Amino acid sequence: MKILFIAGQAIKSNTSVTMMNIAYIKGLIEAGNSVKVITSKLPDGHIASDNGFELPNTLEVEELNISSSFNALSSKRIGSKRVVFNNLKKVLRKAYNSFSLYGPQKSWIKNVDSFSSDEYYDLIISSSDPKHSHLFAKLLIEKKKVLYGKWIQIWGDPMYIDITRNSKLFNKRFYNEEERLISAADKVIYVSPFTADKQKELFPKYQDKIDYILIPYFTLDDTLPRNVNGNDMIFGYFGDYNSKVRNLKPLYNAAIKSKTKLTIRGNSDKPLTKKTDIDISGRISIKELNELEKKTDVFIHLCNTNGTQIPAKVYYYSGTKKPILFILDGESKKIKSFFEKYKRFVFCENNREDIIKAINEIKSRKFSEVKNEVLDELSPVSIANDLLRKVGGDKFNE
To answer: For 89-120, what is each residue's pLDDT tens digit?
Structure first.
């Protein structure tokens, strides 16, 4: 099949969304499909720019310039002399996002007017975040800029119940806009089974078109873990930890109490401070992250404090043979029930005592029920085939 994949998030940006999109694209290509990506092009020097991702050789990429409003409100890799100016930008971004359904990147969709193609695509797949990826696809179709079979939406986060949304003042507007987008697609896919169930409740009229797929692991690493003494093991948490979404403090306190070597990389509104055995800094490039992960003995997955979304790191780590500490939070019973079938994770609740107990189990290697093996069912091609089955595959040509 020929697939047009619309990713509003720049394919050359250092974000979890980019890793998710690339994993899906790799899987679709491995499954024998031809894929073209329409994506945004970040301004030169943008802080999120990262050319460290390896893209499939056969992938066709068309980058469209991002909006001037986003450029004006975004942070750049510039010197400390501009710190005050960057802080002002953050305040302006927060204010803008409080009133906007889509944020400052929305004007990227104006690129629809200059896009044209004579190609026929069996599938159009729009992937969010950002949510305006779906709006771009909708306009592309409405303006008859492309010939296609069916349109599939993949939602990394929902719109109305997105836990990262700061203001609830415009709930009705968000609900109505999300319904408008859902109603226009042929199939709507979420990356969490819990979110899909919730969306069916919120939008019962469209429940037959709503489904879910999981996120594939990003890369395969079947090297065996280091054979080191438990106290020399390095535990790693790699991801942002905004205090509204994820509570990293119990892990931090558990590492201090148990004298565990812990590496943390990620941005936060309340960054933690370094300790003797705890190495902490902000987000790093994908190349630096890859090197750091090689030196890590145990990966840590931390659930969100609320909501139905599952952070993607748990899927990425499933492509390795290293132990994975799965820290439950939010709707923990439901989440554990879904993931324990894989017999791949060491679970604990998000409190200091339970985390210390799990850390000691891993250090002493006393987790007989857990198998440190690559989860083949989460490979890119396996997930891509699951997606194609759920959306009807080549039946879309009928």
So the answer is: 555 555 555 557 887 788 899 999 999 899 99
Contact 76, 45 (CB under 8 A): yes
Give residue 397's pLDDT: 42
- Is 104 exposed, middle or buried (CB count within 10 Å of its CB: 0-12, 13-18, 19+)? buried
- Hey, what domains does the chain have and what are their CATH numbers? 2-216+379-397 (3.40.50.2000), 230-376 (3.40.50.2000)
- On whether the CB atoms of residues 38 and 10 are closer than 8 A, the answer is no
Sign of the dihedral through C-alpha 207, 218, 371, 349: negative
Q: Which amino acid is at 14?
A: N
Angle of helix 249-258 relative to helix 352-363, nearest 10 degrees, comes to: 50
pLDDT value, residue 97? 53
DSSP element (H, E) containing 81: none
Q: What counts of helices (H) and strands (E) characterise the chain?
A: 12, 13
